[in-house]
Amino acid sequence: MLFARLLVDLFDAANGSNYRLPSLSDLGAYLGRSDAPVEFPSAADGPIRYEQFRALFARVISGPWADDEQRQRAFHHLEAFDRFYAINPG
User: Fold this and answer.
1) Do residues 30 and 8 lie in contact, with contact meaning Cβ atoms separated by under 8 Å?
2) Contact 6/25 with Cβ under 8 angstroms?
3) Domain boundaries, the chain
4) pLDDT digit string, tens, across residues 76-85
5) Does residue 65 carry a pLDDT above 90?
6) What tens digit of pLDDT does each residue of 38-51 get?
């Protein structure tokens, strides 16, 4: 769901609410909550998988279909997840 939301916000932000997906801020607020409508792996169990996801996402948006501003905005949206999983994308 995170991947889908990132792509929507990257390529169709003006129509983002039409996709019936939680916002990126909502998804970030669900981190660490077992009662959330979307449950993510715990901070103890998820870092490796999240780091793999993040690397894959970086490759996906490195193509010519996204510009630098779009890439920066996308990675900004991942900051809550980076903090939760203690990832330093540096």
Assistant:
1) no
2) no
3) 2-84
4) 999 999 999 9
5) no
6) 999 999 999 999 99
| pLDDT for 90 | 60
Taking alpha carbons only, the member of 59, 50, 57 closest to residue 82 is 50
For the chain, the distance separating the N- and C-terminal CA atoms, rounded to the nearest angstrom, is 24
Helix-helix angle 68-77:2-11, to 10 degrees: 150
Residue 27: other Cβ atoms inside 10 A: 21
Q: For residue 85, with 0-12 CB atoms within 10 Å meaning exposed, 13-18 middle and 19 or more buried, which class applies? A: buried
pLDDT for the residue numbered 14: 86
